[in-house]
Amino acid sequence: MYFQWLKKIVAAAAFLMVANAQAGLITDVETVNKTVGFGASKSWTHNILDQGFILGSAQTATLTIEFRDDKDPWYAPFETALVQIGLFDLQDGGLVLNPTVDWTGGLGLSSLVKLNADGTLFVQVTSVLGDFIIGKSTLSVVTKDAQVPEPGTMMLFGLGLLGLAAARRKTAV
Question: CA dihedral in degrees (17, 51, 113, 86; nearest 10)?
């Protein structure tokens, strides 16, 4: 019986440590749903402050933009879009040669610094050639680890559970 209690205590302590040690993930979705014609652009801003983001806690981030064709087939293979994230510094964004499939890109240093500073990310898509539809824009931010209890705290918790198990065992005898 004592061995069963010990297994339960170890399992509970391991679960608490694993649950607290995971990095956080914040996802922000902006529904753009706009057609961008030749030479035109569409811009929007992701704001993750309202989702519990703590300034300075972003470690990495990716942006996914849904593109759809506007059903104008004669120049579809040549359609080109310019995706600009934050400042145009060649770290973020890029040239999308066929904006009929989703685009995914990681944030460069300058955009990650800006995201950590104020919790916002500016995005602009410009049609270099052709026209297309922008669907949803999804920003996924991995934040620093959640607060992890110190090992001493976890040890005290485990000893407390052991004490409760021992007290229960004595009363059962």
Answer: 140
Cα dist. 15→8, 12, 25, 50, 112 in Å? 10, 5, 19, 29, 32
CA atoms within 13 A of residue 19's CA, in its CB half-sphere: 7
At 151, which amino acid appears? P
Say if residue 78 is exposed, middle or buried (CB neighbours under 10 Å; 0-12, 13-18, 19+): exposed
In tens, the pLDDT along 127-146 reads 998 889 999 999 999 998 64
Residue with tokens 């035109």: 40
Residue 61's H or E segment, with its range, is strand 58-69
Phi, psi for 170 (deg, rounded to 5): -65, -40
Handedness of CA 94, 98, 99, 103 (dihedral sign): negative
The pairing of strands 41-47 and 120-129 is antiparallel
pLDDT of 91: 65
